[in-house]
Amino acid sequence: MGEENQSLIKVECYAGYRGEETPVRFYLGERRIEVLEVLDRWLDPTCRYFKLRGDDNGIYILRHMTDEDVWEMTLFDSHTEDGIRLSST
């Protein structure tokens, strides 16, 4: 991860019936993570955000900068052993 806690990633998407792309899997280096559930999504003027649950039970927030067609991971919660994690809703 970079100094700003952001990481560039490769994302594969499914384009739904409205043409909106939704992540179905993404890659962190060589590691492939399947999206089990889209927990939330929201927009800002230049980006789209997706809060996802991966097949590793991690919670991820991915940002898609639409003008540049660049994806970043802005947050990762691995569900550590202390039982504390970000809300999944």
Question: Can you lay out the helices and strands and say which pair or pack?
Answer:
Elements: E1 7-8, E2 10-15, E3 21-28, E4 31-43, E5 47-54, E6 59-65, E7 70-77
In a few lines, what is going on in this structure?
This protein has no helices and 7 strands. The chain has a 7-stranded antiparallel sheet with strand order 1-7-6-5-4-3-2, with no helix packed on it. The protein is mainly β.
Mean pLDDT: 82
How big is the Rg?
Answer: 13 Å
How many helices does DSSP assign? 0
Order of H and E elements? EEEEEEE
What percentage of the residues does DSSP assign to strands (E)?
A: over 45%
Which strand order spans the largest sheet, edge to edge or round the barrel? 1-7-6-5-4-3-2
Contiguous runs where pLDDT drops below 50 for at least 5 residues:
1-5
Structural class: mainly beta
**Quantity of strands, as a count:** 7
For the largest beta-sheet, the strand count, sense and barrel status come to: 7 strands, antiparallel
